[in-house]
Amino acid sequence: MKDMLAEIVAKKKDIVDRARLDLPLAKLKKQVNIGRFAMEDVFSKNKWSLIAECKLQSPSKGNFGHPYSVADLARMYENSGAKMLSVHTDPHFLGRNEDIPMVKKLVNLPVLRKDFIIDEYQIYEASMLKADAVLLIARILTDTQLKEYYDVTRSLGLDALIEVHDQEDMEKALATPGQFIGINNRNLKLFKTTIQNTIDLLPYADRSRKLISESGIHTVEEAKLLRDAGLDGILVGEGLSTAPDVEKQTRAFAEL
Q: Which of 45, 60, 61, 179 has the greatest number of CB atoms lying within 10 Å of its CB?
C-alpha cells in the first residue's frame, strides 16, 4: 500500500531545497512580518471556533470539481461566520504560497498556513507570506524538531497548531508548551478518515489546551458530537467546499 505521507514529505524536501536556492534563509529572515498571535486571540474570545479550509483537492480524491477558487471560498467563509481560515500551500492540494497574501488582502480573518513543515525555512517563509499560524505535524518531526520549530514559530509572533494522529503523537505534542492541539481524523498513510479518532484520543489529551478536531467532518451532527465531547473547535475543508450550499454549511458549523 502506498504511503502518501512519505511520498509528500519526500517531494517537500525538494521544494524546500529549490526555495533556498531562490531565496537563501539569511535573506528570507530579513523579510519576515512579526505576527500578533492572532489565533490565540480568536480562541481566547470564543468557546467554539470554526477554521474553514479553502480546499480545492486532496491527494486521495483528486480535484473536488467544485466551481470555487481559494478567493471565493475565503470570502464565503468570512461572510458565513468562520473564525479563521486554513490555506494550503502544498501542490498536492493545488496550494500555492501566493494564496496566503492574496487571501490576507481579501478578508480580515487569521490564516493558518496548511503545509507539511519539515524545515524551519518554511516557518520563516510563512511569516514572510503574512500567515498568522503554521501547522506542525508531530508524525513527521522528531521530538527535538517539534520543540525547536515551535520556538521559532513563537519568536515570529505566530501560533502553532500541533497536529497529532495517535497516542504517541499526542505525547510528543504535550511535551511542548503548544496550546493548540489538532487531532487529525485522517489516517496519514492511507488518507481515510473517521471522527472516532478524535473521541478515542481525548482521554490522552490535556484539556487545559485548545483542542481542535481536523478532517472527515461532513455533517452538523458530527460537529455537535465533537463540540459536546469538549472540543474547542474544528478544522473543516472538504465538508465545506463540496457542500451543496457552502455558506449555509459554514454557518451551521460556525454557529453551534
A: 179
Could you tell me if 201 and 170 are in contact, meaning their C-beta atoms sit under 8 angstroms apart?
A: yes
Query: Which stretch of 10-14, 53-57, 79-83, 250-254 has the lowest confidence by average pLDDT?
Result: 53-57
Q: Tell me the residue ranges of DSSP E strands in 179-255.
A: 180-184, 210-214, 233-236
Q: CA–CA separation, 229 vs 164, rounded Å?
A: 17
pLDDT for residue 1 is more than 50:
no
List the CATH number of the domain containing 108.
3.20.20.70
> How many whole angstroms from its chain centre is CA 25?
23
All cell numbers assigned to 239 = 465538508
**Distance (Å) of CA 226 to CA 135, 229, 253:** 21, 5, 11
Q: Residue 244 — φ and ψ, nearest 5°?
A: -55, -35
Instruction: Give the tens place of pLDDT for each residue, 206-216.
Output: 999 999 999 99
* Total number of domains in the chain: 1
Task: Characterize the bridge pairing of strands 133-137 and 62-63.
Answer: unpaired
Classify 80 as helix, strand or coil.
Answer: coil
